[in-house]
Design a protein that fits this description.
This protein is an alpha/beta fold and about 160 residues long. Helices cover about 35% and strands about 25% of the residues. The radius of gyration is 15 Å and the shape is globular.
Length: about 160
Amino acid sequence: MAEPNIVLARIDNRLVHGQVGNAWAGASEANLIVVADDECSHDEVQKSVMKMTADSVGIGIRFFSLQKTIDIIHKASPKQHIFIVCKTPDDMLKLIQGGVPIKKVNVGNMHVKPGKRVLHEAHVYVDDKDMQDFEAMKSNGVDVYIQIAPGDKKYTI
């Protein structure tokens, strides 16, 4: 079975929004966004808002739980240029450990919350668990970096 064509994997607490739909989808040349999120996969309001963003730039979008993403990603057509987005490092790590062939993880917006500290001044806040998840990704051979917008400098974690 052919490996799915994953062109971008991004962690962003906001999932799909203007920056993801307009900047990242275009820069990655994706033609399908896969939102891998257990909660969102069942939230019709969230899905409809994100679908409007995807529709506005002419890209397909699917909403799957983490397990469903793991179960079906290898059935993707080679014509699908897939952009996977998750809310948290924990979710992305679950995909990687579940066999989703992610080679690079782009870290975007991770909101400030109690117990989180700044990792990068452009809205990337982490706790010890997040850092452990990043280290686990790296130990699986994944390149993990912060890059807020496509033209911005990359910062290796």
